[in-house]
């Protein structure tokens, strides 16, 4: 989760071209780590061309820490409450990412406020459990999103992978996947349906970046032939 004044959106994507090696991916978590586990599974089956040198957790006792350690990953716990300001907390997070030579950062259920420094702008991805611009922005995260969607009676929902740009759910959209919402669907049921699409969408977005196929034009992303 990020928030502050929006950065100027470039007319290009300042991201290295495709390289013949795994992309160095940093994963930031606050909860159960289910998105992280999905990444680990796809790395293992050869469909996600990345390595994960470090996982950063904003909570010491979250289930994701245990799961990351069980997967043999380096885990650093950096808690917002241990720092005097959001800026100090964010500096600590990105210092670890730089030390690990992380090329792309993924927010995987990361719920702590974060400021993205200039050298990592357009190198941080987030996934949101709705079709932005629906049910997004300040206060819309996790189960709150699905409760709002069900309450509104939507017929279609889904997920959105986008660049984080220091304004809530504002950065250029990389891709979206949709689900039909059955009559009588509960928020829990919708969350499960959407998460099945998240498991496809987030790795797909990472693959696009790793392949060098993605550029930004204004606030739109463009997928060019490789």
Which SSEs are present, and which pair or pack?
Elements: E1 23-29, H1 34-44, E2 50-57, H2 63-70, E3 75-77, H3 86-99, E4 104-107, E5 124-128, H4 143-152, E6 156-163, E7 173-180, H5 187-210, E8 214-217, E9 220-223
Parallel strand pairs: 1-2, 1-4, 2-3, 4-5
Antiparallel strand pairs: 5-6, 6-7, 8-9
Helix pairs in contact: 4-5
What attributes characterize this protein structure?
7-stranded mixed β-sheet; 226 residues; globular; single chain; two-stranded antiparallel sheet; Rossmann fold; alpha/beta; 5 helices
Q: Gap between N and C termini, in Å?
A: 31 Å
Q: At CATH's second level, what is the architecture?
A: 3-Layer(aba) Sandwich
Tertiary shape = globular
Helical content stands at 25-40%
| CATH homologous superfamily grouping | Formyl transferase, N-terminal domain
User: The CATH topology, please?
Assistant: Rossmann fold
Number of separate structural domains = 1
CATH class type = Alpha Beta
Query: Whole-number average pLDDT?
Result: 89
| Number of distinct beta strands | 9
Most strands sheet: 7 strands, mixed
Number of helices: 5
Structural class: alpha/beta
Poorly predicted spans: none
- Work out the strand percent: 15-25%
Strand order of the largest sheet: 3-2-1-4-5-6-7
Rg to the nearest angstrom?
A: 17 Å
Sketch the topology as an H/E string, one letter per element.
EHEHEHEEHEEHEE
């Amino acid at each position: 989760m990020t928030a502050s004044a929006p950065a100027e959106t470039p007319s290009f994507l300042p991201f290295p071209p495709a390289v013949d090696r795994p992309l160095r991916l940093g994963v930031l978590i606050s909860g159960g780590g289910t998105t992280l586990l999905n990444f680990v599974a796809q790395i293992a089956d050869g469909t996600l061309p990345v390595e994960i040198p470090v996982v950063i957790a904003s909570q010491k006792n979250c289930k994701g820490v245990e799961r990351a350690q069980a997967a043999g990953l380096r885990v650093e716990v950096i808690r917002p409450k241990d720092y005097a300001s959001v800026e100090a907390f964010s500096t600590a997070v990105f210092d670890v990412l730089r030390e690990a030579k992380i090329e792309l950062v993924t927010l995987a259920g990361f719920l702590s406020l974060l400021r993205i420094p200039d050298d990592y702008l357009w190198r941080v991805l987030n996934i949101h459990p709705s079709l932005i611009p629906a049910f997004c922005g300040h206060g819309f995260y996790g189960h709150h999103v699905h409760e709002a969607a069900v309450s509104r009676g939507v017929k279609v929902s889904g997920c959105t992978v986008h660049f984080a740009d220091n304004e809530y759910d504002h950065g250029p959209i990389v891709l979206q996947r949709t689900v039909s919402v059955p009559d009588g669907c509960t928020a829990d049921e919708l969350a499960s349906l959407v998460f099945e699409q998240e498991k496809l969408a987030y790795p797909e977005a990472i693959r696009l970046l790793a392949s060098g196929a993605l550029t930004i034009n204004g606030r739109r992303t463009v997928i060019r032939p490789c």
